[in-house]
Specification:
Helix content is 32%, strand content 20%. It is of the alpha+beta class and 198 residues long. It has a three-stranded antiparallel β-sheet. A hairpin with a 4-residue loop joins strand 2 (40-47) and strand 3. Helix 4 runs antiparallel to helix 5. It is elongated, with a radius of gyration of 19 Å. The chain starts with 11 loop residues before the first helix and ends with a helix.
Length: 198
């Protein structure tokens, strides 16, 4: 048994995704290249029971809506059991920003158990970001938005809210590896932020 432990953002989930992707083929937008490089490479030595096989995948894409092509060890994929965690956040494009949705009590109760949807978090945050400079937010909305912005640094001082890309409505975060998309934060980091924003 191997135990992988460490603070948020260290790459625990990324290691597990790399292992899973080594046994996969086709398109993926889950793994992305490092912000500091043009190409990121995953290399693994897999013992098939007969011999050691070297597997190598290259990742060139960085944009959330772009996919990389994989050509992994398909013939050995039956040797892997990959159990995903429920808190995985799939990328969702935010085509437009709408008003805050009304929430009936039963929806609020349900979200308390299952969590706030990533698109709701993004829409809420981008909405506040766009309206904040114009003085149209109420005092409570402005205070909540300022708290939300500071939450990125509260979890880890090496991270900070950077900006919202006006052409894509994507939230960008300053990180130790450079400016990254909100979706590229670790699973634990996004889970904590969703709780705070919720």
């Amino acid at each position: 048994m191997n135990i992988i432990c460490g603070p948020n953002g260290i790459g625990k989930t990324t290691i597990l995704e790399c292992v899973a992707h080594i046994f996969s083929a086709g398109q993926t937008n889950i793994l992305k290249r490092n912000a500091r490089t043009d190409i990121s490479t995953i290399e693994a030595t897999v013992n098939t029971g007969i011999q050691d096989v070297i597997a190598k995948l290259s990742l060139k894409e960085f944009l959330p809506n772009r996919e990389d092509h994989l050509n992994g060890l398909l013939g050995d994929s039956n040797k892997l059991i990959s159990l995903k965690i429920n808190r995985t956040f799939d990328y969702k494009a935010l085509d437009s920003v709408g008003r805050d949705p009304g929430r009936e009590p039963h929806i609020i109760y349900s979200e308390a158990r299952s969590g706030i949807k990533l698109t709701d978090v993004k829409s809420w945050f981008v909405n506040r970001y766009l309206y904040s400079p114009h003085g149209t937010l109420s005092n409570a909305q402005q205070v909540n938005f300022n708290l939300a912005k500071s939450s990125f640094s509260a979890l880890d001082g090496a991270f900070a809210f950077s900006r919202v890309d006006p052409s894509t409505n994507e939230i960008l975060v300053t990180s130790p590896t450079g400016e990254i998309y909100y979706e590229y934060l670790s699973s634990g980091f996004k889970s904590c932020l969703s709780i705070i924003f919720g």
